[in-house]
Specification:
heterodimer; A: about 170 residues; mainly alpha; about 70% helix; globular; B: about 200 residues
């Protein structure tokens, strides 16, 4: 295998595990990502269409769960940190470039269309599944949550089941 | 002692500040491990790059072992650590939809943030999709609210369901992870890999 400038994956895994352990030790909870996006969607709807946010159950429930404001949530602060941390790592490794990354066999346009579809599916699925790969699968597995482990198996199982159909996009 | 914020050893403001610091660590490690590249991430489904499998399971067993030892040493009260609830129907259906999103989009929410942070336009589009997907879920919520709340079975840990101790389960997971790492290393040799 050719030398690359990424971290050794096992070292990366141990470091990520320690970050996750710190989150549990400090805040009694795991890492996450989709929860912060939910806060942003709820905040946007609350700002743009306040009457709708008061009446539609999904927004209403979320607003009531956060009396100090939906953006004042642990995950929002954590995801802001993710942006900063990823930017620092990318800057140190010289990876800061605007580009559409895709297999040479497909066009940028096709890659972007599939990225959008994937984002919509993941956004929807993360709400139904009460968390994404970080919040439900990884953090759930660390605390041995049955639900988290079931979601993880469903995510990866479906990925493998559909891999053949979408192979042209990747290999 | 721990969890610090639940035991009110640190204030809510400090907890938010530390969330930001933890996020920096999270984003840094994901990006440094290559999780800002959709082609590296998708590699796990084709065997040409199994970095996802290695990082994910190494992180899971590190955190699991850490929590186990922290609780044995009395450093953290596990009963105060959040355990994700188990709702069978939505856990499976949500996972299936997310799996489809992963293979089509090449990212998950956390990794798309990392990709977007270093300028990947496909990651930015994926993030846009996330907003739309969550908005659809919110708008159609009455249609799937019952399904979303069906099949609730509390907050069980897998070891409780299996009737074994936490330590034994962690040992089994560690052995399983080692077996998967072996398969991952084998797959990377078997399937051609190009630099990207």
């Amino acid at each position: 295998m050719k030398q690359n400038k990424y971290l050794n994956p096992y070292l990366g895994g141990v470091l990520l595990g320690l970050v996750l352990l710190s989150a549990n030790f400090i805040s009694g909870r795991g890492l996450g990502a989709s929860g912060a996006f939910k806060s942003m969607v709820v905040k946007t709807v609350e700002t743009v269409a306040p009457t709708h946010a008061e009446n539609a159950t999904f927004y209403k429930e979320n607003i009531h769960e956060h009396p100090e404001g939906v953006m004042k949530s642990w995950l929002v602060f954590q995801v802001l940190g993710v942006i900063v941390g990823a930017f620092i790592s990318g800057a140190l490794a010289g990876r800061l470039t605007f580009k559409v990354e895709h297999s040479p066999k497909i066009t940028s346009k096709r890659r972007l269309i599939f990225a959008l579809i994937g984002g919509v599916l993941f956004g929807f699925g993360s709400q139904l599944g009460r968390g994404c790969t970080s919040g439900s699968a990884l953090s759930g597995m660390a605390v041995l949550s049955l639900g988290g482990i079931v979601t993880m198996a469903a995510i990866f199982g479906t990925g493998y089941a559909l891999a053949y159909i979408f192979r042209k996009n990747w290999i | 002692m721990g969890p610090l914020s639940v035991n009110e050893i640190i204030s809510s403001g400090t907890n938010f500040f530390l969330a930001f610091i933890i996020g920096i660590g999270f984003g840094f490690v994901l990006e440094a491990s290559g999780f800002s590249s959709s082609r590296k991430l998708a590699g796990v489904f084709y065997g040409y790059d199994t970095v996802v499998l290695k990082v994910f399971f190494t992180a899971a067993i590190t955190a699991m072992l850490g929590l186990l030892f922290f609780s044995l040493f009395g450093w953290v009260d596990l009963s105060l650590v959040y355990v994700n609830p188990t709702y069978w129907h939505s856990a499976i259906a949500g996972g299936i939809i997310m799996g489809a999103g992963f293979i089509t989009g090449g990212f998950c929410p956390g990794t798309s943030v990392c990709g977007a942070a270093i300028g990947k336009i496909d990651a930015m589009v994926f993030v846009g999709g996330l907003f739309l997907g969550i908005f659809f879920f919110g708008e159609g919520y009455p249609l799937w609210e019952n399904f979303f709340k069906d099949g609730f079975s509390g907050f069980p840990r897998l070891n409780e369901v299996m009737g074994i101790s936490q330590g034994v389960l962690v040992l089994l997971v560690v052995l399983m992870a080692l077996a998967m790492f072996w398969v991952g290393e084998w797959a990377e040799k078997k399937f051609p890999r190009e630099e990207y």
